[in-house]
Amino acid sequence: MKLVTYRASVEAAARLGVIDDGFVVDAGRLGLPDSMLGLIEAGPAATEALRAALPAAPWQAKLPLANVTLLAPIPRPKKNIFGIGLNYVEHVAESAKSLDTSKDLPKQPVIFSKPPTTVIAPGEPIRHNGKLTQQLDWEVELACIIGTRATRVARADALSHVFGYSVMIDVSARDNRRAGQWIVSKGMDSFAPFGPCIVTADEIPDPQTLDLWLTVNGVEKQRSNTRHMLFKVDELIADISAGITLEPGDIIATGTPEGVGAGRTPQEWMKPGDTIVATVEGIGTLRHPVIDAIHL
Known about the structure:
2 domains; single chain; alpha+beta; 5-stranded mixed sheet; Fumarylacetoacetase_C_sf; FAH; metal-binding; 12-stranded mixed sheet; Fumarylacetoacetate hydrolase, domain 2
């Protein structure tokens, strides 16, 4: 299923829906949780009940997809997003040339975090604050959403804890890294465009086969496949859960491939007026304008 959080009008509350043949089917009207976190926290049985209810959904539960506004699938995550740095071989090499990172491949996942306030909905603007950064960069990533509690899970069991997958742009202010710490660089408001949906894990049995790409103003900057991850999704879940319990609704942004602005010659940066478009195969596309945030 392709699950979305949507709003039927400007004044309406956010609700959970399923994209089905050009319509959004409202989960709450089928007697199921009416929010994404509510569905995830209700467990796999609730997800299966929603799937089973779709064929008989009444017309009153359906809205044309074109008539609704899509929000981030989880508009306000309960916890910081787990970010993974340097998780594609070529990105390690390009980062070593221009950033303060090692040319050697990481022996363990490089983990950072992005606060919940970084999340923005599909189409919302990425904010460029020229007083804080002149090096605003792009990173297309596969996002993994945890479905069931994971504590010290084995790699072989890790994917059974996944609820689904989405698209995230890990916006990064390269000139805001502080003594090797990335949270200011990665954690400013609007630095995690997220969506447009969550595709349930049953529809992506192998998350290591997906093409992903990103364009800036129509020019392709990144293109790769998730098979090139150094640490696969199951390895990331096993590694994080070895010491940090993963809970339903937690999000892991699994890293970006080569082609970021910092790795180019000359370097390229996002600026107000740009349009950033990021796609992950089988999930969907995010499209975001970059705006001047100084005068907001």
